[in-house]
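Figure caption, in words: inputs first, then the predicted bound structure.
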Amino acid sequence: MTDGTALEMRAMDSAFSPGSPTEALHATLERHRGERFLIVMQDFPDPDALSSGWAFKLIAQRYRIECELIYAGTLSHQENIALVKLTNLPAQRWTTQTFKNKDLSLYSGCIFIDSQGATSQLTALILEAELPIVAIIDHHNGHNELPVEFLDLRPHIRATAAILTQYIQAGLLELDPDSPKHTQCATALMHGIRSDTQNLTQAREDEFLAAAYLSRFYDAQLLNAVLRTARSKRVMDVIERALSNRVVQNNFSVAGVVYLRYEDRDAIPQAADFLVTEENVHTALVYGIVRDEDEDVELVVGSLRTNKLTLDPDEFIKEAFGKDSQGRFFGGGRDKAGGFEIPVGFLSGSNEQSDYARLKWEVFDARIKQKLQELVNPSDNPL
Ligand SMILES: [Mn+2]
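Bound structure (manganese (II) ion present):
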């Protein structure tokens, strides 16, 4: 593969269509040649974020820009762990403590990919450290409020991996079919597109064209290996709890799964994925209290899945749960999926088996059902 010489880059300048995001990104990276960036993903990065972040890192390398691809939470879905391990994806966990211990003077900027900063615990620290935000590339709804040099927000695109593939295709990175790293990254991008479009069933032209391009470089066997990873026993236990606790009313299936370990929080969306497959159910909402023993905090985490075309998960979650004291919504969504997080705050802590823990769960469980009541059943029967 050829690397980015100054001469080649000058040739690239004229190659991008004027005014295109590719041209603007190229100009931005050119201005920062030789610097170091942090690519910040959401706390619980999914395949779309992981693959897009990696692709960005490879693109930036052509401008002699070194990037660390980081997340503050955990890789909690067995498929995400498999993706990272099997493709050698260079993601690193930086907790808020890790971040505070780092020498930030090494970095001249940060990049948000597949998010606009709202889903990372690191964002507040980044703003505090006055680390400039160089780029935001995302496909979620909402408008960005952070000062940023390069912004590419495309809510009509179903996967950020399709946006990154378009940059690559437009010439920001030449994929070499003989490079194992490129093959692995193309496979990760394919997985990112697949996973944000429900196996391409929600894909539109942009995603199909991106997948068609990646099909020349990806490794189908490797992708299969990632997809074959099995659910852990603890995830199965949460799904079992969701099944037995579910209440179905007006085609909504609502289930509280009580307490979960932090590493298992991805069991919640997986349980919602499962509940929405029941006959006569169009929308499933699963929630539980996630305990982070390291930081000694608890969060109520919920996931919504819907097949109902007229239900907008973003609106639904915002209307049901509202905002926190700082005016930020507890959650939101995109097509067919949404989620929320409510800090337990002062009530956090205690032994899971105690009466106090049971009471606390009952309070949150009742409150969530109360909040959902009006939306699920306007005629006002208790759930
Ligand atoms: Mn995404």
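The first helix runs from residue 6 to 15.
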